[in-house]
Amino acid sequence: MTQLLAALRKEWLLQSRAFAALLAVLVFGATALLLFSFAVGPNYDLLRGNAPGFLWLALLLSSTLTLAESFQAEMEHRALEGQLLLPATATAVYYAKALANWAQLTVLGIAMVPLMVALYDATMPRPLALLGIIALGAAGLSAPGTLYAAMTQQARSRQTLLPLLLFPLVVPVLIAAVKATSLLMLGDPMGQVWSWTLLLVAFDAIHWSLCGLLFGRVVED
Amino acid sequence: MPGAILASVARGRYDAGPMTNPDAIDARGLCRRYGRRWALVDVSFRVAAGTSVMVAGRNGSGKSTLLRIVSTAIRADRGTARVLGHDIRAERETVRRRTALLSHASYLYESLTALENLAIAARFLGREARRAALLPLLAEVELAERADDAVSTFSAGMRKRLALARTLLQEGGLVLLDEPYGELDPPGFRLVDRLFGTLRARGCAVLMATHLLERGAALCDEGIVLDGGRLRWQGPARDLPSLGGLDPATLPEGR
Fold first, then answer.
1. Which of A3, A7, A79 sits opposite B107 (nearest CB)?
2. Interface contact A171, partner B, CB < 8 A
3. What is the tens place of the pLDDT at every residue in B81-90?
4. Residue B1 pLDDT
5. Which residues touch A41 (CB under 8 Å, ≥6 apart)?
6. Angstrom distances, CA of residue A61 to CA of A26, A69, A147, B174, B190
7. What number is the ipTM of this complex?
8. What gap in Å lies between CA B252 and CA B255, rounded to an integer?
9. Is B149 strand, coil or helix?
């Protein structure tokens, strides 16, 4: 627990100095949302119906920037190696990093909701439930995303490699999050939102456990 | 005997002999390759607890690789080593707890201040991370006035000083110094000499890779020379500068 707290404090310090980077990712996400609306055209029904999908696609695309960036400071002067030699446990380092990425993606997702409402004329009858879905979906992206970001950080073409590895894996998250968001925004007469939420919870539970175990093997020589 | 180190090893063979205290390092047949090139080939040596050894050799001779294997930063492809009695493969965590490495890489975060960088290391080590506890350490490397400045504003020499402070924070029984004089100014050289003395006074064993043969010879008990990844020579460090530097042609066969 001491190690996890130490790693979390380190992440907090690093994130507090990376506000500009987070802002840049938010602008990227907002731009993606705007471009999707141009692609559909001025059909409000179509825009409203596709809004949840576009929101999650924008978040998924933004996540690759956030995740790739999250290990840059660790690799710049081999800071990660330095921590492991102290020794910091790889598990603590992973969970702190994954939690920091989760927090960033959740904030990003929440910040994009008002934009989505404005651009797509969407409604938001259950904002707290939507917040929960965004948090669960962001957790589903950040757990494997953090692991893959660590794996690809040393690769020359890491900006390409990370999405190539991550996107196929998080298809269940994308489907479940889009479905749950659609049901929350467009109505849920059959009460299906819980089954999609459960799928998200199951995916998160599996990946947060598994990736924590695998991280040590990925970052150690 | 200045050579308190048990440097009776030559080319991979030696007699272990009876020991009361475990050696700081007991390496046997260490090999490491990067891709198809062998960076270290069958290197065996011993360093007695509390002694200091200089590792010399030309660029690419395997000095850094050797130090990184002993510190467990990377694995040996063949061979093994015991550090302070602990196996570097089976007891990696224990080895790490008792070893400090000053690497070529600074292990620092550019966006954080000198104090924050030290505090991160201190927290992982379970040590006091308050300002008052860390400032003396920064003062020791003459960086106290820049404690609250981001590392990104530091010169290469200042980064090296901060990396030295970070290394001192770990109170291990073995300290591995990879080119500690690199990027430092003459006062920095004297600082390293002084810190070297501090480490020896603590009872730490020191393995130091350096190109400064005369300086290293004055500080260390024993020396080893690597050439093309192989252990080429070992003996009293004071003999090394008189052997024609690191020219393989002038070095005698291993002893």
1. A79
2. no
3. 999 999 999 9
4. 38
5. none
6. 11, 13, 17, 47, 52
7. 0.84
8. 8
9. coil
Mean pLDDT computed over every residue of chain B: 86
CA angle B184, B101, B77 (to 5 degrees): 125
Contact between A86 and B125 using a beta-carbon 8 Å cutoff:
yes
Q: Is A133 helix (H, G, I), strand (E, B) or coil?
A: helix
The minimum CA-CA distance between A177 and chain B, rounded to whole Å, is 35
Q: What is the pLDDT of residue A56?
A: 95
Cβ <8 Å between B108 and A79: yes
- Find the closest chain B residue to A73 by CA distance: B109
Inter-chain touch B107–A221, beta carbons under 8 Å:
no
Nearest-CB residue to A17 (from B71, B108, B111): B111
| Chain center to CA of B238 | 18
* Chain B: closest CA distance from residue A90 (Å): 11
pLDDT at B43: 93
Q: What percent of chain A clears pLDDT 70, i.e. is strictly above it?
A: 100
Determine the distance in angstroms separating the CA of B18 from the nearest CA of chain A, rounded to an integer.
Answer: 31
> A43 — phi, psi (to 5°)?
-105, 105
pLDDT digits (tens, 9 = 90+) for B225-245: 998 899 988 888 888 777 655
Q: A residues 50-89 near B, CB within 8 Å?
A: 73, 76-79, 81-88
Residue B244 pLDDT: 59
Return phi, psi of residue B18, to 5°.
-75, 145
Contact flag A86-B126 (C-beta cutoff 8 Å): no
Backbone region of residue A91 per phi and psi (left: phi > 0; alpha: psi in -120 to 50; beta: other values): alpha
Rounded CA separation A184/A162 (Å): 31
**Is residue B178 helix, strand or coil?**
strand
* Mean per-residue pLDDT, B56-66: 92
- Range picked from A86-90, A95-99, A122-126, B22-26 for highest mean pLDDT: A95-99
Instruction: Say how far apart CA A8 and CA A161 lie, in whole Å.
Output: 27
In this structure, what token pair is assigned to residue B203? 């009872």
Q: Which residue out of B108, B112, B113, B120 would a mutagenesis test of the A interface target, given it has the greatest number of A Cβ atoms within 10 Å?
A: B120
Q: Which residues, listed in sequence order, are joined to residue B225 by a DSSP beta bridge?
A: B56, B233
Cα–Cα distance for residue pair B136/A83, rounded to 1 Å: 22
Identify the residue whose tokens are 């695309």: A61
Taking the C-alpha atoms of residue A153 and residue A145, their distance in angstroms, rounded to an integer, is 12
Residue A198 has pLDDT above 90, yes or no: yes
> Could you read off the pLDDT of B168-201 as tens digits, one per residue?
998 888 999 999 998 889 999 999 999 999 888 8
Q: How many residues does chain B have?
A: 255
